[in-house]
Amino acid sequence: MDRVTVTCLGSGAALGERRMWSSLLVDRTILLDLPPTAVPQLYRVGADIAAIEHVFISHFHADHSFGIPFFLLLYQFTVSRDRPVYMIGPPGLEERATTLYKLAWPELAKHGFPAGLTLAFVEVAGDGVHRAGDLEFTALRMEHFGIATYGYRFTTSGRKFAYTGDTGECPQLHQLVAGADVVITELTHPSPTDDPGHLDVAAVTQIAHEASGTVLATHMSATPAAIPGVVLCRDGETYVV
User: Fold this and answer.
1) Helix (H, G, I), strand (E, B) or coil at 72
2) Inter-residue contact 11 to 33 (CB < 8 Å)
3) Which one, of 22, 25, 4, 1, lies nearest residue 187 by Cα?
4) pLDDT tens string 184-213
5) Structural domains of the chain, ranges and CATH numbers in brackets
6) How far apart (Å, rounded) are the C-alpha atoms in residues 120 and 32?
7) What integer is the mean pLDDT of 216-223?
8) Which residues contact 115 (CB under 8 A, 6 or more apart)?
9) What is the phi/psi pair of residue 104, to 5°?
């Protein structure tokens, strides 16, 4: 089984201290969430942006999706590819991307999305197995303040990944991570909390106990104490898993 790289572009929650907003690049081709800081971080880590094939958006909060117009701008001026980029997310993703692009760059948006980019939107209408090009993935609805929020499972280079996005404690969270080779989980709170829409140290500790593979924690509001079996992601770091 091949080892896979996971590059942490950012590991912070919306109010994270001294961290870029959470976003990760998996196997150089799969981007998990797209905050405004993702694009400069892609350049900072030397990523081949034109190699990105799939972009997963877990939900539409700004720290997960407001990087979309900056990502699209790259294809207007500096990046091009001859294959589609699949943008995956909740229902309304294409409309949201179009609106953000119009708000950000109205003079460019009059002509539609950049000519150097073929965008293929895959909107997840509910739990189950879906396909984006040659990538099959499973989506599960997470618990995050009642808005459409999805965690995802997919396999790349023979490794099974589970990505929670933002979520509180819920049965589907444990279904998502069961049997994964790599779990990428949110860890918003460094101490116990009753926040129903996010995870804390106790919840992530339980995930680590259940996990059969590597556990990476991101989306942190502050740095928690070390958790056995959990890698606390650091901005700009690449992990081989």
Assistant:
1) helix
2) no
3) 22
4) 999 999 999 999 999 999 999 999 999 999
5) 5-240 (3.60.15.10)
6) 16
7) 97
8) 76
9) -80, -45
Q: For residue 223, with 0-12 CB atoms within 10 Å meaning exposed, 13-18 middle and 19 or more buried, which class applies?
A: middle
Beta strands in the chain (DSSP E): 5-10, 23-26, 30-32, 54-56, 85-89, 119-123, 128-132, 135-141, 150-156, 159-163, 182-186, 214-218, 230-232, 238-240
Residue 90 and residue 69 in contact, taking contact as beta carbons nearer than 8 Å: no
Q: Whole-model pTM?
A: 0.97
**CB–CB of 25/31 below 8 Å?**
yes
pLDDT band at 52 (very low <50, low <70, confident <90, very high): very high
Closest CA to 174 of 136, 214, 147, 203: 203
Residue 63 contacts by C-beta under 8 Å, 6 or more apart in sequence? 12, 13, 14, 21, 22, 35
According to DSSP, the β-strands at 182-186 and 128-132 are: unpaired
Collapsing DSSP to helix, strand or coil, 96 comes out as: helix
**Spatial contact of 164 and 215, defined as CB atoms under 8 Å apart:** no
pLDDT confidence of residue 1: 65
Tokens of 123: 């909107």
Q: How far apart are CA 127 and CA 104, in angstroms?
A: 32
- Relative to beta strand 230-232, strand 214-218 is parallel
Residues 74-81 have a mean pLDDT of 94
